[in-house]
Amino acid sequence: MNIDILGISVLWIFLWGYIIVASIDFGAGFFGFYSVATGKKHITYAIIERYLSPVWEVTNVFLVFFYIGMVGFFPDTAMYYGTALLVPGSLALILLSIRGAYYAFSNYGSKQNVWYMFLYGATGLLIPAALSTVLVISEGGIIQVIEGKIVLLWSELFSSLYTWSVILLALVSVLYISAMFLTYYAHKAKDKPAYMILRGYALFWSLPTILASLFAFYAISQHNKEHFNNMLSLSWMFIASFICFAIAVFFVWKGRNLGLSFIMVMLQFGFAFFGYGRAHLPYILYPYITIREHFTNETMAIALVAAFIAGLFVLIPSIVLLLRLFLFDAAYVRGTKNKKGGKGSYGK
Amino acid sequence: MTAMYDAVSYSRLLTEITLGFHIIFATIGVGVPVMIALAEWRGIKRNDPYYILLARRWTRGFVITVAIGVVTGTSIGLQLSLLWPSFMQVAGQAIGLPLFMETFAFFVEAIFLGIYLYTWDRFKNPFVHFMLIIPIALAASASAFFITCVNAFMNTPQGFTLENGVIRNVEPIKAMFNPATATKVSHVLSSAYMTCAFVLAAIAAFSLIKGRSDKVYARKALKLTLVAGIIFGITNALIGDFSGKFLAAYQPVKLAAAEWHFETKDKAELIMGGFLTEDNEIKYALKIPYALSILAGGSPNTVVHGLNETPPELQPPLRIHYYFDGMVLIGTLTIAIGVVYLWFSRAKRKKPLPRWLLIAIVCCGPLSVIAIELGWIYAEVGRLPWILVGYMKVEDGATTANNVHIMLLLFCLLYLVLAISCIKVLAKLFRNAHVADELLSLGIEGGKRK
Question: Where, by residue number, does the polypeptide cross the bilayer (chain B) (predicted)?
Answer without folding.
Answer: 20-41, 62-83, 95-118, 130-154, 188-209, 221-239, 320-344, 356-379, 406-427
